[in-house]
Every structure is written in structure tokens, then in C-alpha cells.
Amino acid sequence: MRMSGKVSPLSKIRHAMRVQENSDTLSERVRRTLVKTLYTQPASLAIGAFNGIACTAVAAWVADLEILYIGCAVLTVIAIARLIAALGLSSDEDRTSTRRLELVYEIGAFSYAFTIGLIASLTIWFEASAEVEVLMIANALCYGTGICARNAGRPTIALGQLVLVCAPIMVVSLHAGTLAFMALFINIFLLIPAMMSITFNVFKVLRDSIASAETSAKLAEKMQVLARTDVVTGLANRAGLNHSMVETMMTVNEDTRLALFWIDLDRFKEVNDLLGHPIGDRVLTEVASRLREVSPDMATVSRFGGDEFIVFCPVDCRLDAERLASEIHAEIMRPVRVDGDRLEVRASVGVALLPDDGADADSLMQCADLALYHAKVGGRSQTQFFDQSMTRDLVRRREIEGELRTALQRDELSIFYQPIIDLETGKIRAFEALIRWFHPEKGELRPDEFIPVAEETGVIVTLGNWITAQAARTAAQWPEDISLAVNLSPLQIRAPGAALAIRNALREAGLDPSRLELEVTESLFIEDNHATGNFIDELSSIGVRFALDDFGTGYSSLGYINTFPFKKIKVDRSFVSGPNVGRRSDAIIRAVAEMGSTLEMDIVAEGLETIEQVQAVRAAGCNMGQGFYFSRAVPDYLAAMLLEQEREGETPMQSKRITG
Length: 660
Fold this sequence. Notes:
eight-stranded mixed barrel, 14% strand, rod-shaped
């Protein structure tokens, strides 16, 4: 059915009802606020009451009229009752209705106003002395005009008090009929509309100010909520998380244990790059929904930024935190369906507990962040709870970072070379350049200790360029049929001028580009395919060759082999000497070797340690091998010695003198 552009009468009525409902709600809140002003400053009520009682007592004493003594007593009782009511009723408590507050105040106010006006009129009726009449009339009229300003928040009460004060005086003045009293009558008669105008003006200003203040407060509250909310997922953002953490820590008992779960989606960049940011946002929204469902009622669930989420909540014990972490992990890793596509989402989780791991919010987040780091370094898609050894590791990494920068300046680093052997001839075809660090105080540091630190801190760019330049100078002294293989970090390739740095290293060393093989891993293409393609194209155009390293451990996509000009594939050592070596690994090696033969690519088996392994990979179709069976990585002078032995007719497969 087609919808017309006109608004139906029913819609107009509904809209008007909503507007009226909102207006009535606002009016009621404003009325409540204005009624509360009646109960503010009870001291002013006490002062006014004391003044009225004192004036009446003086008038009764001077005039010696019994009726004035009675009036003084009545005023005293009313004043005391009003003070008790003002102090006994709390205008801030919601259980006391606005109407009740108003009614109680009206009874006391009207009673007091009428009594003070009646006493003033009695001084005229009984023809008391002039000074007594002036005292009481002035007191009554001052009270009536003053109360209009004090109670302008409720005009009916203020003007009602004024009328009750003035009416008895006006009646008696009219009855007296003298010129002076007729003038008094006219003055009071004109006073009432003047005070009405003033009172209503004050009321309007008060009401508008309160309404504006409430509107501003609501707008500020709404802006504050928006400022603390993530626009994509509707969860708390970083500011909202910080606010909630502070509030939670202030309200819970000191012995309450709190847990912080720091969640990072693994390889989420691929979703945005391959499917687009709208799909990525929908995945984030789905993850947010799942986190809300699995988290406890008192939990704060936030999107900390990018593809990171944080859940902060009280837990009974560490076991409870472990259970919740397992549920969070399992919930996130359920497949996500977007437009019919099934997406596998993986996540790493770091967990820290308060007060076990940190005494405040900042230290708790640092511990959870460190636990998350270890979860990602440990292979991703896992949960890690913080322990103190992680802090020691962090201190160790920072120490290594500083020492590594110094080592580059002091030439403490060395390059060793491990031969890559032709399995048919037994001759050396290439050397792989491997970094070694001989610390002057700590001795030799393993590459797996400092290479990850170099990648984290960006030092790997400087280090990688240094390795390429140094190794190229050494390789320039080898026979022309010997190639140099150098591993490249993804960070090094993505750095500005990466290809230019390698071209400069080749030019300065005088090494033919065709003798350089750059080894890259499959993860490089997943993380930054465009930059990698430009890098490979630029260097391939001058003759540099590329090898796919650690094949079989990552995504092992044949698309990479088809897209990029690889000349060599290195089969990971886990297929050669790992714990799962067997028929399956042998079949995989055979399949890769057959593919390499068809594509005219060299297939290198890594990690060869025994003659049986050498024979097995050669039978499977690998034409090149590398490992301790032939030689460990050796300094440049020993690499030159190996080449010298080869020229003398003794190959590394025949010699065991330099195998380490």
C-alpha cells in the first residue's frame, strides 16, 4: 500500500498528546521545585514569626487589651506549628507528595496571615493609641508585601497571604469611615494589584529560569552520555569506561574482587580491507551484542577503540573470572553471519584482577594489557591471566630495546651465514644471513629474545637495513654463482623507502641484484598486500629474487604464489623434524615439491639434522636443503672456508669439520 505524504489527523492528535504529556511532566517538575522554595531557609520563617509575636506582645502591653494578648498567644501557637512542619517535612524526599507539601504550608501560612491582619484590624476597632495602630498596621502590611517576594514561587499562596492580611484592615478602615482610614483603605486596595503584578512577574522569571535550567541540565546530561558512548556499538567508549570504573570502585566493598577482561579481535584489519568498513562495523556491533549478553548485570562493557573491547565487573573469585573469560571467548568465536556470509572471528583476551594484580584502575589496565600482549605473542586466539613474570618480561624487553640500539652503534652485532645445499650435487647454492648478538656482559643473546623486541619498537627497520648492507658486502666476495638470502620483516618492507634502502645496499656493495634472495613470510601479504606488491615489483624489476619462507605454517594460499614472482619456497622445519612428522607431512612435502617442479621453483627443506631426513626430503622431491646436518650458521670467514673446501672438491655433505 502506498503511503501518502500527508500527516493523518490521528497522527496530529497523538503528537499533540505527546507534547501535552511532556509539558505536563515538565510543569509538575517545575511546580515541585517551586514548592520546595517555600521550605528553604526556615530561619526566615522563624524571624518573621518572632517579629510578629514581638510586635503583638508590645501592642498588647501598651494598649492593655486582653484580645491582643489572646492574638499574641494564637500567633505563637501558629508560628511554632509552622516551624515544626517546615523542619519535619523533607521537601527532598519523593515519598512526600507535592500536593501535601503545598497543603501543609498553605494551612500555616494562611492562618498566620489572617491572624496578623486580624490583630492589626482589632487595634483600629478598639481605638487603641495611634502608635499601637501604626505598629500593628505597619507590621501586617510589611509582612504581606514581604511574603509576596518570598513565596512568589507559588503565587496563589503569596497573594492569598497578602489578601488575608489586608482584608480585615480594609474592612475595619471602611467601617471607621474617617478620611484618614478611607485613604488607608484606598492605599491598601491599590497595593494588592501592584503586588499581584510584581508577584506574577517574579513567578514567571522563576518558572522560566527553572525550566531553562532543567532543559540545559538534560541537554548536558545527554551530551555527557553521548560523549561516553561509542557511536558504532552503543557500548561505553574509553571515557565512559573510565567513568564507570571510578564509580564502581567507589561503591563496592573493599574486599570485593574486580576483573578486567581486555579483548582484541585477531586480524580484524582483514575484514575491513577485504569486505569494507560497513561490514566491519556490523561485525563489531555483533561482538558488542554478544559481550553484553554474556557479561554479568553489574558489568561495564566498552569498546576501548578499534577492534578492542573491555569488560569490567565484580567477580566472586579467580575461578569465577576464569569461567567468565571462557564464556566470553567462546561467545566471540561463534561464527558471525553477515549478508549470508559466514565469518570466523578470533580473539585474544588478557585478564587482570583487583586487588590481586593492581591496586587501582590504571595499574589494573596495565596488567590486563600486558596479559593481552602475551596472549597475542603466544599465538593469538587464547586467554592469558596476568602474573608477575609478565612484568619481569616487560622490564627485560625494555632493557633489550635500549641495549639493542646501543649495540647497533657499538658494532656488537654480527652476521652469521648458514649454507643452503643442492641435494643432488651436495654443493652450496646460497647462504642465509642470520643475525647474532654477542653482548659484552650477558654473552650471546638468542635472536628469539631480541628480534620480537626489535619488531615491537620499530628498531627492526634499522636492524634489517644494516643486515642487508653488511651481508651484501660479504656476498660480493663470494663466487658469482653463490646467492645471498636475507629475511625481511613486514615492518621493514612497509617502512618508507624500503626498496630504495635495499637498492642502495646492493650498489654500495657492488653485488649483482640477481644474487640477492629476499625471504618473506605469508603473514606479510595478509597484513599489507598493496605495499608488499609495490615493494616486490620494484625490486623484481632489477633482478632481485624472492622466496616464500616457512611455507605451510600460515595461510599457505596458492594465490600468493600465482600473484608474486617467487623463485623459491622454503618448507617449514615442522614438516621435516617436528613432532608430527609422518605420512601426512611427507605427502605435503611431495605435493609442494611437485608444484615447485612444475613452476620451475626451487623447494628448500629447512631443519635437516640427520641423513635420514636428508634422504626423505630428497625422495619427496625437494632439490635443496638447509640445517645442522650440513652446517650451523658460521661467521663470514668460515663461510669463505666452506666455499674454499668446495673448490677443492669436498662438499659439506662429505665434510663434518665445520658442522659445529
